[in-house]
Amino acid sequence: MARSIATTRTAPDLRDRVAAWRDAGKSIALVPTMGALHAGHLSLVALAKSKADAVVASVFVNPAQFGPKEDLALYPRDEAGDLAKLLDAGAALAYVPDAAEMYPPSYSTRVSVGDLTDDLCGAARPNHFDGVASIVAKLLMQCAPDIAVFGEKDYQQLLVVRRLVRDLDMPVEIVGGPVIREADGLALSSRNAYLSPEERKRAPVLFQTIRDVAADLERGRGADDAALAGRFKLEAEGFRVDYVAVRDPDTLRPLSGPVKRARVLAAVHLGRTRLIDNVPVPSR
Ligand code: AMP
């Protein structure tokens, strides 16, 4: 019989299995995902494995982080494929709760991280980060891992999770993993599946543009100027731009004038697909 990954669908069972590992002296890492797994997710599993004895990957498409007009119903789902990939990647356990497990009747608590969520994706997607913070808080409480791994692909989310854990004194280390890209630079994303062949050809312009903004900044161009040039480039290429921003990499506060350390972040719409990406300054 083909091997398959151990899978659990309930929080009490997850807790029991993690407790057994802990009793055996093992450290535990959690990698939260929404499934439709790709090499970006699997790189986080590999990073988690390098830092802990047992890796739990969660797969849950969290309704609370989608807006009423967003793509919840369309969001790609492939549980069998995800479980096979997690087994190959060396995860020890898949946690695949359903919506009733996460949001039982009369569920009424919301975790809200301020400040960091006021703009960028927070402005474009009201309530999105409350949904993220709430589900991440629940997953961390349910699993109680030593570390949890998140991708820099969702850079604002990574900082929100770091802030959440710090503010609520959660005893877990948050580890960030670098953005994994296609050969042409497009950041891997489950949402890339929405792109038409023609849009897929144009999509790498997002990465090329923010990389150019980063190069401009490294040459001493002012932050506002460089960001505006990036916006114009993307608009000229037919993208609808939510933002192109040059921010402090730790606080996400806006920067202006010449910068030494920054993060260039952008969000655009290409057809009906929303794409986000970011790069560090200086580039690594
Ligand atoms: P998602 O399934 O989109 O919610 O993503 C789950 C985790 O994978 C998040 O921490 C993302 O930041 C991370 N992730 C998604 N795409 C990538 C990528 N291309 N490179 C690295 N991490 C990623």
What does this structure look like?
By secondary structure, the chain is α/β, with parallel strands linked by helices. It folds into 2 domains: 7-177, HUPs (Rossmann fold, 3-Layer(aba) Sandwich), CATH 3.40.50; 190-281, Pantoate-beta-alanine ligase, C-terminal domain (Pantoate--beta-alanine Ligase, Chain: A,domain 2, 2-Layer Sandwich), CATH 3.30.1300. The protein is built from 10 helices and 9 strands. The strands form 2 sheets. The chain has a 6-stranded parallel sheet, with helices on both faces. Helix 6 packs across helix 7 (155-167) and helix 9 (205-218) packs antiparallel against helix 10 (223-236). The longest helix has 16 residues, at 128-143. The radius of gyration is 19 Å and the shape is globular. Residues 33-34, 40-41, 43-44, 150-151, 153-154, 177, 179-180, 187-190 line the site of adenosine monophosphate.
Helix content: 25-40%
Q: What does the main sheet amount to?
A: 6 strands, parallel
| Uncertain segments | none
**CATH H-level superfamily of the largest domain:** HUPs
Please state how the strands of the largest beta sheet are arranged side by side.
1-4-3-2-5-6
